[in-house]
Design goal:
With about 300 residues, the protein is α/β, with parallel strands linked by helices. The protein has 9 helices and 17 strands. Helix 6 runs parallel beside helix 7. The termini are far apart. About 5% of the residues have low confidence.
Length: about 300
């Protein structure tokens, strides 16, 4: 074999290591984290890549892998965090079958909150809802938050100063302890999604920059937490979907007020709203058709009735 062929073959096998650091970090993010950790034995560069990996995803593949080991998932996650160098921009705990204790989750959240976290996901299979540590509410670097099976009691003057996207599923909001004024201040929020959430009405959500709002089968949502709020001035996309969403004449009035208050509204999806609190009230379909015929402030508004 000629020297040219040998050099060509060597180049083929080393080309991936020549890629920019941000691309290699993206590759490590997309493969199971236990396999990403194994790349650290390849060379000094790969060892540094792993130790500085800014996005850590602990998903079902990780928890399945850990189930065959002597060490616990919590201890392995803690070891990875302690040995990590630099910022943790993304941290995701995702498993529909595995659990972590409240104290273990708190340690993780506190650690990443002090290391530049931007995107945080917590979606574990615990029987009891996780209580968010208060420090997360004031984390200045956090921009995307996705929570499942969580409970949070709002601390005084709570706000997520730079949060752009908030997704809550099977979660519960509680007001300020010992206070009648319960505000969740989200000054930069653009997207809010509530799925199967409860007690949302006990909190006034303050989000002047909100553009996208989805309320999916959140059984106690009755628009009241938004009714006297400038939250809808910028909203463009609104989705209300859930067969158990409670609708009454009062709440339809709130919905009409909602449309009137939304000059930029482009899409309103209302689906499977069937339960009535007043037996003498008109059918939900009649209310929704009234909503469709209502004069909108924005000529761009489009209301879809899914019969």
């Amino acid at each position: 074999m000629s020297q040219c062929n040998v050099a060509s073959n060597v180049k083929k096998y080393t080309v991936i290591s020549d890629l920019p650091t941000n691309i290699l970090h993206k590759i490590l993010e997309l493969i199971p984290i236990q396999d990403a950790a194994k790349t650290s034995i390849l060379s000094k560069r790969w060892r540094k890549l792993w130790s500085t990996q800014p996005h850590l995803v602990f998903d079902r593949h990780f928890f399945q892998y850990v189930s065959t080991k002597d060490a616990s998932a919590a201890s392995i996650i803690h070891k990875i965090l302690v040995q990590h160098i630099g910022p943790v921009l993304g941290f995701h705990l995702i498993s529909k079958t595995d659990t972590l204790s409240q104290s273990d989750v708190n340690q993780c959240i506190i650690f990443v909150s002090n290391h530049g976290i931007q995107k945080l996901t917590l979606d574990m299979a615990n029987d009891e809802k996780y209580a968010l540590p208060y420090g997360l509410f004031t984390c200045a670097t956090l921009t995307h938050l996705k929570l499942s099976w969580c409970f949070f009691e709002l601390p005084e003057d709570s706000q997520f100063p730079n949060l752009v996207s908030l997704q809550l599923e099977h979660s519960e909001l509680d007001g300020h302890a010992g206070s009648d004024e319960n505000y969740l201040i989200l000054p930069m929020l653009e997207t809010l999604e509530l799925r199967f959430c409860v007690d949302v009405d006990c909190v006034d959500i303050v989000s002047p920059n909100l553009v996208n709002l989805s309320i999916i089968s959140s059984y106690t949502v009755t628009f009241e937490c938004f009714n006297v709020n400038p939250i809808f001035r910028r909203i463009k996309h609104l989705c209300l979907d859930g067969s158990s969403l409670k609708i009454s004449v009062k709440h339809i009035s709130s919905a009409l007020c909602l449309v009137r208050s939304s000059p930029d509204l482009r899409d309103l999806d209302v689906d499977e709203v069937v339960e009535m609190e007043n037996k003498n009230a008109r059918s939900s379909s009649e209310h929704l058709k009234e909503l469709i015929s209502y004069s909108r402030a924005s000529p761009k508004a489009k209301i879809k009735y899914l019969d």
